[in-house]
Specification:
Distance between the termini of chain A: 35 Å
CATH class of one domain in chain A: Alpha Beta
Largest interface: A-B, 122 and 123 residues
Radius of gyration of chain A: 26 Å
Largest sheet of chain A: 5 strands, parallel
Helix content of chain A: 25-40%
Structural class of chain A: alpha+beta
CATH topology of one domain in chain A: Polyamine Oxidase, Chain A, domain 2
Strand content of chain A: 15-25%
Oligomer: homodimer
């Protein structure tokens, strides 16, 4: 986990882009405030599953939840002779590793069913949606199961920024991200180059180093090498293309430095992208659910679907799980030597268990992250055809709103745009809207980024998920405060008798698939060690 | 075309990345020098073919060359009733729009045949290989012909830089591009923030603007908000990942500012990518030749293959083309009302024609760009599995050498790496090497970027193209000097009697497919106007 006192704080947040607004308007301190209570990170410690020596034929392990953690445990233990059974409350495998496509149905905590009606071939990753390249544990199974991968465009400099509340002439004006990036780096390079030229760094740098610095600044900032000034650059954007012309391109005019400063739009990017959100990330071809399906091909026969766990008890030799078959209403009991539970802590803490008070306190400690998303089907890819934007995003700086373009199906006829990505308070508000209200809000807002296009090309098909209102999830992910994590995580990581906790919720990376998989790796290693010792 | 006196000059060059070395070692002036005689640009004037009114049933147009220009002309004129025939010297369509894959054969000017033996599913775009999103003319046909597209990763911050001749401790050291980027932007932000804090900009900026600037610099440079210093950042790179740890990530240590300055490695990037080489570019799924095949599906029956043009004559009413059927050796003659020639000017200028002296002078004026490429099949994707690099490139700063990773087939078993991309003198030298020498040179060099991996995993399959030594091309593209362009292009753009010149060679964008297509659009418009007037 990223330490909250490090200077890196503001950057980890860009994982969920809604804070761009805070940064642009309130500067660093606003971002720092917004970060409180947040829990973000990245990574991958192990690159391969634990190398478990020996087999254990017939030891029965009951796994609660057929998400990536549960299926990882079943797959790996199965290879070592364990008899695994997975109880899954939903009628499908994958946990939150879902993609909305024609026929996909999600159920809310109130029992409302939302079925996606996108056209054939159109889909949206409404759960996890992007992988950085060093999440080795996920890539391990992607390779093993032969899941084809493609680029997910995280950063596209051609995306738009428009902040209606920004000060000065740029307030409410739609600009390309690269215009701001080029101008800010140009003007700041000019300032430093000129100050250097005027002797401001004579005490700090040698002549040779100042010369090298100036060379760098000229290049970095697209400066005029003679007078060290930034006069704009073709590379900030072009207003005219003429492949047959003497001048093929005409560059756009740079914004005034003070105008950008006033607007705060310069705070929408950084020296490098955050480590966990590089410009190019990765996604399975055909939808994130292809990862879940890769696992399901291997362990599908071990899964009992529609199995809602009601009770979790254990004695010295045995774990007993009572569950309800939601299809028939029948109540059933399963016994096993061990149990791995990936049930969201917020849900498990409300069930009947004989777990210790310390463990119950730990389960109840974290917050449930509220997260809402909305995606809209468009009948024409105007963002590609008219705006030259293929993947990436645009932003109005409104918390909860976004315009995220699809990173697949380029040059096709239709496409799915994500138009809401809300967290915290914004997600609660978003979740309370009706589907019609959500769509209207998204159209009204997104129309400002794509005037005359967004509403016109909306194809009357939308899909919305509110993870905190989704049955059997009740949260986007588990949000730990640092003190709670420090206090309670050790309890949840250790065996509670014959019961082991897994899922991204007990990893250092809640909300990331790598956390789910590595949590399973960690727990099966403990179970196996215990079995081998016996 | 980009004006050569603009401060943007160094950046247009990055199209062909070999100049990175010059920039890093010699600073701006070296790049400026290297630019002399160069001809680079981007763009797309027209977004759709000319809207030609009326039809001309039966007017015969003979098109020389089934590259993108020739096929565009045949396709568009065919829609208006023209009787088009294409004479193509090669046994396949597409011109330089080629992909090397199992069975693909290219022939050198000496008659040597090079056949690609890559494994099934492996391919390499040895001609055009990337499209920026605003090359509308190309995207127009991609959409029309339903060519599936995907991202071509132009910039990947995880790629390596290693400059053996760089000064100081970083000389010969392999570093990630993002480490240099983060550190340079960090240190320069620190310098400017501190100078600002010390009052250096008090005369230039208001208090409020200085505060805004400082906010920006803290964010841009990952500075410590308290003392405005750059102390490194997690986002430059991580040395340890632990998804189950309390500290998920451990950041790597920043390089010393003076060490980077001395090394010149900071000159390997700029404030924004060049406009024609954004971080994400685009390529057809399955190979660039899919664009050629899209055209061929439409106009394939109009093409006469193996037709090597020998002579081009015209009188007042007729164009007469004599060609040799290279398969049978027979000589044949075709007559037509008009002729569009896309034959490389350097080749056409050597044929028998009755073109004017002025026109002959124009055809002989441009240089033939020497270009060489080499690609190697690897039996394991070590760059993905071991180095977390999916697409993008690494560089040693050696002219002619590169390590370009494939932007397709991620997480598969094998992959094709481009290990030479040579221009000018370097291409001539490269072209004189035997295949074995080329491979050995590439392995020796690339092994420095991927020690212990590159040579070990080379799969003994390589393909090489030297465009200047390729039959019926004899150049990578046509290189115009600005004065020659100014003097001769108007001649080539105007009808020479009944003969019209097309191809990227007469556009403002030699070497780009958009230039080829738009040249055809421009010329068919003139032919049609002439026919309609008659």
């Amino acid at each position: 986990m990223v330490k909250r006192t490090s200077p890196d704080q503001p950057y980890t947040i860009s994982k969920r882009e809604f804070l761009e607004g805070c940064a642009a308007f309130g500067g660093v301190s606003a971002v720092m405030t917004a970060l409180n209570g947040w829990d973000m990170g990245i990574a991958s410690a192990a690159e391969a599953p634990p190398n478990l020596m020996g087999r254990s034929e017939g030891t029965k392990v009951l796994i609660l939840g057929a998400g990536l953690a549960g299926m990882t445990a079943a797959y790996e233990l199965g290879l070592r002779g364990y008899d695994c059974q997975i109880l899954e409350a939903r009628p499908f495998a994958g946990g939150r590793c879902q993609s909305s496509r024609a026929g996909f149905t999600t159920t809310t905590v109130d029992g409302e069913k939302r079925t996606c009606d996108f056209d054939e071939g159109q889909y949206f990753n409404h759960g996890p949606w992007r992988l950085p390249s060093f999440h080795h544990a996920v890539f391990h199974y992607i390779r093993k199961f032969g899941v084809p991968m493609e680029v997910m465009v995280q950063e596209n400099d051609l995306g738009y920024i428009q902040h209606d509340k920004a000060n000065g002439p740029l307030g409410g004006r739609r600009v390309r991200k690269r215009e701001i990036k080029a101008d800010m780096r140009g003007y700041t390079s000019e300032l430093l180059a000129k100050l250097t030229d005027q002797g401001a760094l004579d005490d700090e740098l040698t002549n040779r180093d100042r010369e090298k610095l100036t060379d760098y600044l000229i290049r970095e900032g697209f400066l005029d090498a003679k007078d060290l000034s930034y006069k704009g650059t073709l590379h900030r954007g072009i207003t005219k293309f003429d492949a047959m012309g003497t001048n093929v391109m005409t560059g756009s005019k740079a914004f005034a430095f003070k105008e950008i400063l006033q607007s705060g739009l310069g705070n929408s990017f950084q020296g490098v992208t955050t480590i966990d959100h590089p410009a190019t990330m990765y996604q399975p071809v055909g939808g994130m659910d292809q990862i879940a399906q890769g696992f399901e091909r291997e362990v599908g026969e071990k899964i009992t679907f529609n199995a809602e766990v009601l009770e979790l008890k254990q004695d010295k030799n045995n774990v007993r799980v009572t569950y309800r078959d939601t299809a028939t209403g029948e109540t059933r009991v399963e016994n096993a030597n061990f149990c791995i539970t990936t049930i969201p802590l917020g849900i498990l803490s409300k069930l009947k268990t004989d777990l210790s008070d310390q463990c119950k306190e730990a389960m109840a400690a974290p917050r449930k992250m509220t997260v809402g998303k909305l995606s809209l089907q468009m009948n024409r890819r105007f963002w590609e055809e008219d705006d030259n934007i293929y993947g990436g995003s645009s932003t109005l700086g409104i918390p909860g709103h976004t315009v995220i373009y699809p990173s697949y199906g380029y040059c096709g006829k239709k496409g799915i745009i994500q138009s809401a990505y809300a967290f915290g308070r914004a997600a609660i508000v978003h979740g309370e809207l009706s589907m019609g209200q959500k769509v209207e809000q998204a159209l009204e807002r997104s129309e400002r980024i794509h005037p005359g296009q967004f509403r016109k090309h909306y194809d009357n098909k939308a899909f919305s998920i509110d993870w905190h209102l989704t049955r059997f999830s009740e949260a986007g992910w588990t949000a730990w405060s640092p003190p709670d994590r420090q206090k309670h995580m050790p309890v949840l990581r250790e065996p509670q008798g014959r019961i082991y906790f897994a899922g991204d919720q007990v990893s250092g990376l809640p909300g990331w698939q790598v956390g789910a998989i590595e949590s399973a790796w960690a727990q099966i290693e403990k179970i196996h060690a215990s079995v081998m010792k016996a």
